[in-house]
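Protocol step 4 of 6: structure prediction from sequence.
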Amino acid sequence: MGSFITNFQSPVGIDDLVERFEVGQSNIDILFASAIDGWTEWTVSKDAEIGDTVFFMCAKTSKDHIRAGVNEAKRLGNRDLIFFAEEQKEKYYRYHGKILAIGKVVDQPRQDVSEFEYQYWRSPWYARIEQIEILEKPVDISDFRDFITVSRTGAITKLTVEQEEKLLQLIDQ
């Protein structure tokens, strides 16, 4: 068993934002709803194993992407879309650059296609994740960037045992 950070993004671009508006939720909304439901399907490493610990991190760049989305929604002038975008902006501004949840992989990774046409991620690997716990005190990247370098090219950052232990200590504080 191991652990990894899965770094998710706010809607990127107006097409992604409109699609999330039509569905009624963004990635952060899906994560919070999954904690209530007790499970989610999420992108993982193709090498993930049952029992792996998953740290859900909202990408630091989410703040910039959602700000651009709000501005684009305002240019379109759709009041409902603007309201949705502003709601999302509040969430992503609050959580960008933070680990905000933890969970456990409960089945083997499988290749699948996302239901979202305008998804930002490229990984086709998904697994069921359960025991999702939203952290009372999300952990900011500034608290762990000296011992973990979060991947800038992919959503998954695999952790060593030492990195996982240090990160869990920060979460338990």
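Step 5 (inspection) to follow. The CA atoms of residues 73 and 82 lie 5 Å apart.
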